[in-house]
Description:
By secondary structure, the protein is an alpha+beta fold. It has 19 helices and 19 strands.
Amino acid sequence: MPPKRRGPLQTVQRETDDIKRKVDALVQQAAKPNASDMTETLKRCKELQRAVEEIMKTLKKLSKADEPAPVGNYEQCKREEEKRLLTLHDRLQSLALQLQPYDEMAGPSSSQTEQESEEENSDEEDESSEDEDAEEEVQDDYDEDDDADSGDEDADTGPTAPGQGSVSYVALSAFTGEEEGDLSIQKGEILKVLSKNKDGWWLAQNSNGQKGLVPKTFLKMSSSQDSERENEDEGESEEDEEEPDMKSSKTSNWNTVRKAVTEIDATDVLSAMGAIPPGFRPSTLSRLLEEGRSYRASHFIQPKLSQSQLSFKDLHMDPDTGKVHGHPSRVSLTLTLWSCRMIPPPGVGLQVLSRHVRLCAFNGSQVLSNIHTVRATYNSKSPKTWSFSPRMTGMLPSLLDGDCFLRCDSESPDLGILFELGVTYIRNSTGERGDLSCGWAFLKLFDESGAPIALRTQELTIHGGTPFEKDTDMDTTSTKRGYPTGVFQQMLLSRKIPKLVVKLKSVNTRNRELLNLLPDTIVGSLSTLQLLATYRQILADALLLDRVTMYNADLICSSVLASFPDVLDQPDLMDAFRKSWSESESNLRRSDKRDVNVLKQMFVTVYMGSVFPLLYSAEMPAPCWADEGVESQRARIIYSPSQKTSVETLLSSHCSHQAFDIRQVTYDLISSAQH
């Protein structure tokens, strides 16, 4: 009987067992106090590190289809092997850092000598090429600034130089070691850093002579070292002042380039470690949201000035009725995010704080609207499935509401909706936060003839990479064995492809009337549609009726107009406003619910009595995306029974508010309107 053929996963398991035995033997050998064998031990440690990395790469390429026979709990077994390999890699890395000082005492190796000579040659080439042309000169200046800005990170590639052995750091907070090789520290303790590594774990020594690994985020250079660094930076800045024009031209550009390169490098590192699938990238839409208010709803809700700058392009008053004149847009629809299927989960080493979908109007090359975010719900029993609009008692938060609306007046033939699936994560090893794109999908709203597409349920294929990359797979397993030719095989493969299910719906008469009151281009939650339309009517009264002339650009005294856009960017405050609005609306008569004047008056009363005091409360922490602690603290303040606002509570000594700012109660048309 021929021997049973091993599967690829079983082969990897056996190789991991063999590596583990070698690592255990190496650790026992390194514990012996024999310095003469340390160099050889370090060499074997590095060889085992390379072997672990090769096995990790092989494991990431495996799929269940590669197995010659069915394997139960395949994904769980694969994740367990990833954890084992990462543990072995961490042990070897810790051992290499402990052995590194002995390697330095024995003298630099030939590879280090070659690296130093290459760095010296590169420095000479940089100095000789300063006068070649402007672009190379800007690049040299950027390299020098990058070295100066990196500070502590300029030595992260290995152990510190002999001359830097006396560099001391102060512990910012206490850290308790959880694994073998970690060093427990106390807040304020003085440590001596012996070696720095790119993964954020530094080898440090305390005053008792104990050595171990400490996260670099817990350390800060001592004040004496800071003063020396500042003196060096001042000397460099005096030399750089000789070319002010060149400096001013590059500072605005290279900061953005430096940030982008850093994020891409971090993603490459996580992908190489197996922490994220190969199709994941830094979130494109999240980066746009961090740049300012240009892609937020608070910017797009504002009126848009015409080309003459003397009137409004999207805000008109009907002279017969005295109401805002509604105007249709090229695209005006509602949609429902239904579910996401077969989304690859991040690997070990990352803690996911939020799973969400960001959507906006897109023409293939440019974001045309604000970016709206809907948070997905996740079930650990189905780790590859995301769902939206969960069932719950009471009012559904707008952040979880999958019902959205979209308006856009772009004439582009490629106009559509861009969906970006993203996760906000925190690295367990370093505590660093970040936003990753798990893939994207694009729904084109017009066909080749220019006719609108049918409003029905759409199953959109999720692509890897960014919207500006082409043919990037979410996972390498889909095309590793070639494309199947059989119908049954194609059906099985189609079920494994990541999909986003979206349902497009026509707008009913009531919602269409409200949508026509909004700006030409905006995306948002359907649950806030009534509030947005009422705000636009109040805005039209102030800008088109109450102003003396259309040329008057004086400040308008209105707390509602000035502060509501800020509330619009904070979903929890919008939910509090919706809750108070719903309670007040339930007490109105049926005829009053259709009376615009009654609704505008109720809008001002409810807003000033519920949300406005919370917005400027000193007790309210600033919003922080995907921070559970901050979100819980804000929810306790918002829905606390003591927050029932009245004149007595506002003037009470127990009620504290931020320092008064004139911008809280005045609306500046020139700075707020879209130009």
